[in-house]
Specification:
By secondary structure, the protein is an alpha+beta fold. The protein is about 25% helix and about 50% strand. The chain contains 2 helices and 8 strands, in the order αββββββββα. It has helices at about 1-20, 160-189; strands at about 20-30, 40-45, 50-70, 80-90, 100-110, 110, 115-140, 145-155. Strands 1, 2, 3, 4, 5, 6, 7 and 8 form an 8-stranded mixed β-sheet that branches. A hairpin with a 4-residue loop joins strand 6 (about 110) and strand 7.
Length: about 190
């Protein structure tokens, strides 16, 4: 029995050691997050991480901006290796974290933003639905990151209703012209 318990304990220690340092849903940013509502930050320290931030889009078409997710580090040891961002939707089953979640954007790797600074940014037009932003990397020292996600509705072009009205007018003119042409055919006979 003792040998069995030692084996189970050793397997548990190995499984824990093999798991990533941090993998978690950090926050739900809500529906159509604004710049303030979509603000986030996380201290990752010296671990590998996979962080998700959930959000929902309610408009038919949405302009999503991942605005400068930044790691400003005072020491070279606070650099985040392989720092990247991705956007996923919940997939057909509309459940978070299942095998049918679809990668829509990324992974977009970090770029330098000067001395001792790195950032990730991006934008996309997305339909209504449930999504999550995922940030991954290997933190160093006391590293951390922060940024925001902002959403705005994609406006219908101002000329679109006018264009529709013009098409409708042309259709009516053609219909009227055909009706007049048909009436002339009966009177000429």
């Amino acid at each position: 029995m003792r040998k069995y318990l030692v084996t189970v304990a050793a397997a548990a220690v190995l499984a824990f050691a093999a798991s990533p340092g941090k993998a978690a849903v950090i926050n739900d940013l809500g529906v159509n997050p604004t710049s303030a509502q979509g603000a986030f930050k996380n201290s990752v320290g010296g671990t590998s991480f996979t962080d998700q931030y959930l959000f929902q889009l309610a408009n038919a078409q949405n302009f999503l901006t991942i605005a400068s997710v930044t790691n400003v580090y005072p020491k070279a040891t606070d650099f985040i290796s392989n720092f990247a961002a991705s956007i996923y939707n919940f997939g057909v089953d509309n459940l978070f974290g299942t095998s049918d979640d679809a990668l829509l954007f990324g992974p977009e790797g970090a770029a330098p933003c000067g001395s001792m600074c790195q950032f990730v940014a991006g934008a996309a037009i997305l339909p209504a639905g449930n999504y999550y932003a995922q940030f991954t990397g290997q933190g160093g020292g006391t590293s951390g990151y922060g940024g925001n996600i902002a959403v705005s509705a994609v406006p219908i072009p101002a000329a679109l209703p006018l264009f529709g009205t013009a098409l409708g007018g042309l259709f009516l003119l053609k219909k009227k012209h055909r009706a007049r042409k048909g009436a002339n055919a009966f009177t000429a006979a």
